[in-house]
Amino acid sequence: MSDQARPGPATLWGLLASRIAATGDEPAYRDYDGVRFRSWTWRDAGREVGRARAAFAASGLRPGDRVGICAYNTPEWVFCDLAALSLGLTVVPLFFNDRPENIAYCLKDAGVRWLFVDRPPAAEVLDCGLQGIVSFKEARGIVSFGDWLAAADGRRVAPVDHDPDALATIVYTSGTTGRPKGVMLSHKNILANVGALLVALPEIAAQRHRFLSFLPLSHMFERTVGEYIAIALGAETFFSRGIAELGEDLKIARPTILVSVPKIFERIYGKMQEGLKASPRRQQLVARAAAAGLAVTEGRAQGLERLSARFYDLLVGRAVRRRLGGKLRYVFLGGAPASPRLLGFFTGLGVRFLQGYGLTETAPVISCHHLADRDLASVGRPLSNVSLRFINDEICVKGPSVMQGYWNLPEATAQAMDADGYFHTGDLGRLRDGLLYLTGRAKDIIVLSNGEKVPPADVEQAILQDPAFEHALVVGEGRGALALLAVSDIDDERELRDRANAELHAFPGYTHIRHVLRVSGPWTIENGFLTPTLKVRRQWIEERYAAAIDALYAASDDDRSGHPPC
Fold first, then answer.
1. Which domains does the chain have, with CATH numbers?
2. What DSSP assignment string belongs to 412-424?
3. End-to-end CA, the chain
4. What is the pTM of this model?
5. Which residues are CB-contacts of 197 (< 8 A; sequence separation ≥ 6)?
6. Which of 17, 123, 243, 290 is deepest in the core (most CB within 10 A)?
7. Which secondary-structure segment (H or E) carries 236?
8. How do residues 425-453 score in pLDDT, each as one tens digit?
């Protein structure tokens, strides 16, 4: 690509310093601590980062030392992150609801010296040889963040001038298979991604914005877009109290930008459809409104069709957008594949998605929609500083945002990076008219006994359009037909099969479901079924239900017949 990302600060701390110099008295952060609303300007934020920097120095930490943050999103999370980065420390973000044994593994693997938490740590964490534990909240037996800061008050410590190629963070992959790997990202890696996103979306950079932060900052999607892009834009960030309060927080914060994963909108869609069941006329009205609005967005509507779309928007679209705060302009969507039909529904009701694609290893964005793009089946255009290569349909990426490697895993790094410097994503795709389309995950593709290949994510997305399914996971490697593991309130597995196949009417016959296993739910992050970005842990679930899946197929004589189901 010939276009280059705009020049900017050389380090992530420099990003904040530039923002303070530009709009120091503008609002930066806001949250609710359970008692009152708190707010900070950019200058206030810089002062808190300076206090934390002094406390880090007083704690004996030196450039290159690792600092862990295992807490829910708060302004203190950001202050701690930026203060550590300003001293050349390496931040190791950890998902606050991960299993204690996973957290302990990451702490030991990275050699973390100090850990910041928002709750008393588990015994496994206490056994990690940490030199200090600080709590963002009051916690018995643990130094509070306020006391930790106060101990260094009056001490002034200047930021360390360090190389942009210095290691900024070690981010552990969510571990859908095997042990998580620590992805090493430099200041330069992350800032290259920030700069390229701003080049791709200049119209957004010219507007004033408020973000609502709810995805975990331990994930690079939220950290790059929700933290660093927000700083670059000078946008105020409101920190949500949690997923359970997200609906209320949307109304309070009234964000213009939301960083989200598809699962959130799948849940909203499911609740809407469930609520409309009692009124087929209202259900039909909503469907017509979404279809009319989508036709306008895609440029297919003319004359009376455009007038009717405006009428439908007054009746339906505005009400839906009010539930999302009423001022939402853009939804940055990533972390997992999204159904074009789901996106089309909400797009028709006036929600503007900027869908993208990326991985932790690419800091994370590889491609994203530009404002003029309308193809909801694509994941946008490759960023200006990214080069793509396709090897047997696998997407391979090269550019300044590609990781330095995996921490302590030189063999895994060598396997992921080829001799030309391309990172092999493991995702399958194609490039058409400048847009990137995902076609599956190389390791997840199901090959039936008749040789037909099935990308399970596509099938699962279609099935989940029926609100009867809370979760759906398709299996069938080496079998004669597909089976479905379903979390649903419906007990009748035959009804579940019929409803699933009704959503697959446009798919080839061999993708239809023959067997259904209804399993208990819910599937959550806490019980290990979902990753922090709400993706199902496919291999782990298949192993957990291996015996039940085998029994399901054993009951059918035509398991390996290779004939498509009726």
1. 446-554 (3.30.300.30)
2. HHHHHB-TTS-EE
3. 48
4. 0.85
5. 224, 225, 229, 365, 368, 383
6. 290
7. strand 236-239
8. 999 999 999 999 998 877 788 888 777 87
